[in-house]
Amino acid sequence: MTTVNQRITGLLHKPLEPLRAAGRTDAGAWPVIGGLILIAVVFGSLNEHFLSAENLTNLALQMAATGTISLGIIMVILLGEIDLSAGSVSGLCAVVMTILYVHHGWNPLVAVAAALGCAVLVGLLHGWMFTKLRMPSFVVTLAGLIGWQGLMLYLLGRGGTINLPFEGLLAGLSDTWLPLWAGWLVAALIVAGWSAGSLVNRRLRRGADLPVTSGLWLTLRLAGLAGVLAVVVLVLSADRGVPLLLVIFGTLVVCLDLMLRHTVFGRHMYAVGGNAEAARRAGINITRIRVLAFVAGSTLAAFGGILAASRLAAVNQSSGGSDTLLMAIAAAVIGGTSLFGGRGRAYAALLGILVIQSITNGMLLLSVDSSVRYMVTAAVLAIAVAIDSLARRGQPR
């Protein structure tokens, strides 16, 4: 009996090796943080308005919607797959919400719930096609990109644009600012939640005889997080205050990160992404995990589309289009999520979208041509993927 238990334990530990590596991906965030500091120094010296409270507040508003879509992209990339339909799904669900709210008079919260329900159905369809029909995720979501965009255009009709009431709840999301005390309260809750999650993770890893982070390093990280949040609250409060959109995005990042690191589902996500066959032998239902990942990806994409519609106070034929999808994928990869699966954290979306939006914002302030902006973003993305490839090459098999 002991031998059988040991074999089962070994099979469980093997697919969870990517999770152990994920626990060390914090070091992988340092190059991104260093890049952000470099961006701030360069653009701050070239344009004094870049680091102003007004511009940083606008930057926070710009990153919320695409960053939320990027969170959904991360859920699929963690499995080593790709979701090319996220942009179209975000636009379609935003249109569904707006039509129900504006044309049919539904309660805004019910309209949002219905739009998210549509996203769940889309994710289930994609997951079914991927797991049951064995279609490549690239093909499944490429078809979704084209098909859902076509359905969105059909629903919009000839008008092409539907405006949200400016005095309504949905449009007000992007025009709501927290008072100073509320900003400090949110920062304190984030620090408390991160501390609790780190302590729980430390206790679980120690109970499983896994290496744990030293108490001093944990304290320094906590102090660093508290310091960064304090600066953010002070800077944003110097303008209009902390925007509600940023709070919503930050809450999603924290919740998703805690879910991935401290739940069975999150552990199974890393296991399946790191080694699907080993995960299957360990008794993990890889079909269920893959379907749920596509559902989560579509739902977060829809949520991002709703935030984008709120900021624009309208939906139109370009909703979820243009470079939304490309920027969401780039944000996930630049932030440190491995395209090979099994490694990454939810905060990669926050760091990645901050890098992209900072570069875009700084170049716009300098009146740099859009062609140069695209090339610079492509170079940053290529460097991020190269670093990930080199990091994987240096890891033992």
Give a structural overview.
A two-stranded antiparallel sheet has the order 1-4. A two-stranded antiparallel sheet has the order 2-3. It is an all-alpha fold and 397 residues long. The protein contains 17 helices and 4 strands. The model is unreliable at 1-27 (pLDDT under 50). The longest helix has 28 residues, at 180-207. The protein has helices at residues 2-13, 17-22, 30-46, 53-77, 86-103, 108-131, 137-156, 169-172, 180-207, 215-237, 244-262, 264-274, 276-281, 286-312, 324-334, 347-365, 370-393; strands spanning 161-163, 177-178, 242-243, 314-316.
Shape: globular
Q: How much helix is in the residues? A: over 70%
Query: Count of DSSP helices?
Result: 17
The rounded distance between the terminal residues' Cα atoms is: 30 Å
| Average pLDDT taken over every residue | 84
Percent range for β-strand residues = under 5%
Structural class: mainly alpha
Q: Uncertain spans, ≥5 residues at pLDDT below 50?
A: 1-27
User: How does the major sheet shape up?
Assistant: 2 strands, antiparallel
Strand order within the widest beta sheet: 1-4
Strand tally: 4
Oligomerization: single chain
Give the SSE order as H and E letters: HHHHHHHEHEHHEHHHHEHHH
What is the radius of gyration? Answer: 21 Å
